[in-house]
Description:
The protein is an all-alpha fold.
Amino acid sequence: MNQTEFIRSVAAKPKISPAQAEPITRATLETLAERITGGQARDLASQLPEELKACVSSSAGVNPEPFGLPEFLERVQARAAVDLQAATDGARAVFDTLRETISAKEYGDMIDQLPEEFWQLTGPSINRMETRRVGT
Length: 136
C-alpha cells in the first residue's frame, strides 16, 4: 500500500473529511510514535508506506512518554489543527487502517504497549479476549 492508498483508506472511514485525512494521519502516527518504544516505532515504520515512515521513525530510539488517551487526542488535535471530535474520529480511522494494512503481529505488539483506555480507539490486542469498547 502506498501513501495515497493509506490516506484514502483513512478518508473512507465514517466521519473523516478527505481534506483532514492526511494531516490527521500524520499527527496520529507522530503522536503514536511518542507513546510506544523506539523499537516498536521502528517496527511500525518498516510496514508503513515510504512517505509515512518519517512520522514514526523520528521517535525511534527515544523512550516512550507515559501519557493517556486524553493527552494523545489533544496532541493529535494540535498537530492536525482540527477540533477534538475530528481528532478522535481521525485517530480511530488511522488505527483501523493500521489494523487492515500492517501485520496482525505488529499491530498486536503496538496495541500491547498502549494503556487499556486506548481500546476506545483500537479495540484490544489480538492476544486479548475482551470486546472492543466504543467510547466517547
